[in-house]
Fold Tripartite tricarboxylate transporter permease.
Amino acid sequence: MDSISMLLGGLGDALTLTNLLWVLIGCLLGTAVGVMPGLGSSMAVALLLPVTFALDPTAAFIMFSGIYFGGLFGDSTMAILMNTPGQASAIASTFEGHTMARSGRAPQALATAAIGAFVGGMAASVLVVFFAPWLAAFSTSFGPAEFFALAVFAFFATSSVLADSAVKGLLALLLGIGISVIGIDGVSGAPRFTAGSPLLFDGISLVTVTVGMLALAEVIYVACRERFDPTRSPMKASGRPWLNRAELKEAAPAWARGTIIGLPFGVVPAGGSELPTFLAFGLERRLDSRRRNPRFGKGAIRGLAAPEAAGNATTGMAMGALLALGLPVSATAAMMLAAFRQYGLQPGPLLFDRSADLVWTLLASFFLAMIVLLVINLPFAQLWAKLLLIPKPYLYAGIAMFCGLGIYASSPSVADLLILLVIGLIGFLMRLADYPLAPLIIGMVLGPLAETNLRDALMSSDGNPLALLDGPIVWLIYALLLGAIALTILSAVRRSAAARRAARETSADVSV
C-alpha cells in the first residue's frame, strides 16, 4: 500500500504541465534519434547532459527516461521499414518485421511493434514499483559461470533456429565471434587478429557490423537484384494502421512470452536488451516450426511482437535496477548514472529515502512515457510507412548516406567507413550464398560477454574448468540447452521423415 500511495503522489507531480512537456520532448527526441543508424538513446543522453544542468533534476531525468524509451521505438521503426536498426536491441525485429514491410504490411508491423513496446514497458514499470527488491536479490545470484552459461545457451539455442542449415548457422556464429575478438586484448594487451594494422587495434564496433551487415549489405543486394531483375514489384506502403482481431489473437501470446523473457534481464548486467530479444525471437521461431503452416520467413507477426515486448521489458527493468541498486545494465543506463552523479545523487536503496519525491515522480513518468509513445507512434504508423513510396534509387541511396553519417558520427574516422564498406560486402556475399546474418550478429554481441565471464570464472578458480559448472542456475541453463538441442534434432528427424513419406506418396501417385 505504501508503494501505491507513493506512486499516486509521484503521478500527481508528473502530471503537471511542465513535467508533461518534458515527457513529450524526451519521447520525441528519443524517437528521432532512434531512426538514425548508428545513433541511439545513449548518445542522445550524452549530448544533452550538459544542456540539462540548467533544469530541475526531476525534469531532467523525466526527459532522459523519455529518450530512453523513445529510442527503442525509433530503432524499431527503421528496423522494420529499412532493415536498418538504430541499435543492436532492434536487430531481432528486422527479421520478420522487414519481411512484413516488404509484403505490404508495414503499418501492421509498426502497430505490432508499438503495442509490444507498450505492453513490455508497462509490465516492467509495474514490477519496478512493486517487486524491484525481489528482482534485485535475484540478480545477485548471477556470477561469471552463470553469465557464460547464458551466453553459450544463446549461441547454440538461437543459431540452431535462426538458420535453415545448422552448419551455416554455426559458421556464421563463429565468424561473428571472430570479429568480436579483433583488437587489443584487454587483459594481456596483445593485439589479436589485427594483421599488424593499427587501424584494427581498437577492434570493430558492433555498430559498424550491425549497420554494415543489415543496412549496407541490403542496399548492395537490392541494387544488384534490381539491376538483374528489374521486373520485381516494389514494396507497398498501403494497409490499415491497426491490427484486426485475428492479428491481435496471434500477437498477444508472443507479447506475453516476450515480456516474461525480457523482465529478468533488466536487473542482470548482461549487456542490455540484445540477448532477451534474440531469445524471444528464437522461442517464437521454435514454436512456429511445430505449427501445421509455419509462418516464419514470410512475415510472422509473432516474430516481431516477442522481441519488441522483450526489449522494452528489459529497458523498463533496467531503469528500476539503476534506481534501486545503482546498477547500470546498459549504455544508456550508464549515462544516466553519470547524470545522477552530476546532480550530486547516488542511485541505490538510500535514494528512495533521501530523494523520494524525485524517484516516485520519475517512476510515474515511466507510465506516462509509455502512453505518450503509443499515442505518437500508433496513429502515425501509416505515415511512417509512406517512406516506402520513395523511389528505390533515392531511398537506398539515402540509406547508404545515413549509414555513413551514423558511423562517422559515432567514430569520426575514415578507417571506420572503410571497415563499414568491407563488412557490407561480406554481408552481401553471405546473402548470395544463403548464409544467415542473425547468428553472426549474435556472435558479435555475445562474444565479449562470453569471453569476459569465461576468463573471470577461470581466474577466480585458479584455472579449474569445473568452476564453469558450479551452481544450480548453471546446471539449469545447461539442462535447458540440452533440451533445446534435443528438440531441434527431433524436429529435424520428423521433418526428414515427413519429406520421405511425401516423396514416396508422390512417386506412388505418378506410377499409378
